[in-house]
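Before the break, one more example. Copy the sequence into your notebook; we will annotate it together after we see the structure.
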Amino acid sequence: MFLVGLTGGIATGKSAVAGVFREHGIPVIDADAIARKVVEPGKPAWYKIKMEFGSDILLSTKQLDRAKLGDIIFNDVEKRKKLNAITHPDIYREIYWQTFKYFIQGYPFIVLELPLLFESGHMLNYLHKIIVVTCEEDLQLQRLMERTGFTESKAKLRIEAQMSLEKKADMANFVIENSGTERDTREQTIKVINVLKCSKYHWKLRFIVGFCCTVLLAGAYWLRNRSFKSLSATA
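Here is what the structure looks like once it is written out:
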């Protein structure tokens, strides 16, 4: 099984592209969904965030006040780094676990939806291919403002906190341009899916894993027989 990274800018349409992959039976691991899960009340990361940022960033339900926390970290790079240092270990641990489960199920490849793939750099060495979803800058700003209710200045601050779409596109294997219609985006995504489905790379990886497992089992069998013979000789 090989891994495909799906990334892009905020409000460029990553989730729409991920939805097309799911419709075609391809598993998608959503890092944002995992990030929300690991900071639920009572989770270790929740306690650490509370200690670092204070109880003021909690709602009456004990859930994180994401708007307030967002205002803090997007105006202070160091605090954003502290938040990432708290949450990222738990997020990536869950990503690894879900990836392992899909590997056991025999999928040829899966998609990791990672909004901050290039910014964090954490998963780059594990990915066989990278897909970047882009759109026109004005459209990105408009979508973000409509989706969140942010003012223009606040929306620009969120966009500027990430690497530019141009730089991300330069490092991608596939670029899906999402400024047009839903049909256009869907057709681009299906073309990428067809290319990935034709790849034989997963067989190479499975051969390597299978070979390593065979060597380990053979070694364990040899040690077992050797121990048995030693015990028989001393009996």
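Residues 97 and 103 are 10 Å apart (CA to CA). The domain at 34-105 is CATH 3.40.50.300 (Rossmann fold). Try to locate both features in your own notes.
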